[in-house]
């Protein structure tokens, strides 16, 4: 069941640029704890990229 939901959410979302992307990310992070690490790495990389400009 969990695998089906984890596969379904990204399909429903289609694109991370949607305004609901944060909500989808929260759901995925709750269901797949390692996904939280991916989110944190993304935000850290964005922070570093902005500071280098």
Nutshell version of this structure?
The protein has 53 residues and is mostly helical. It has helices at 2-13, 21-31, 33-51. The protein has one domain (2-51).
Characterization of the model:
- With 53 residues, this protein is mainly α.
- The protein has one domain (2-51).
- 79% of the residues lie in helices and 0% in strands.
- Helix 1 runs antiparallel to helix 2 (21-31) and helix 2 (21-31) crosses helix 3 (33-51).
- The radius of gyration is 13 Å and the shape is globular.
- The model has no long low-confidence stretch (mean pLDDT 79).
Structural key phrases:
53 residues; 3 helices; mainly alpha
Number of domains: 1
Unreliable segments of 5+ consecutive residues = none
Overall body shape: globular
Summed up, the helix count is 3
Number of beta-strand segments = 0
The profile of the biggest β sheet is:
none
Determine Rg (CA atoms, Å).
Answer: 13 Å
The N- and C-terminal alpha carbons lie at a distance of 44 Å
Overall SS class: mainly alpha
- Helix percentage: over 70%
Strand content: under 5%
Give the overall pLDDT as a whole number.
79
The arrangement of helices and strands along the chain is HHH
């Amino acid at each position: 069941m969990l695998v089906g939901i984890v596969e379904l959410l990204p399909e429903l979302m289609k694109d991370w640029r949607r305004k609901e992307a944060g909500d989808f990310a929260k759901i995925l992070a709750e269901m797949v704890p390692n996904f939280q690490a991916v989110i944190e790495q993304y935000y850290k990389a964005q922070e570093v990229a902005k500071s280098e400009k």
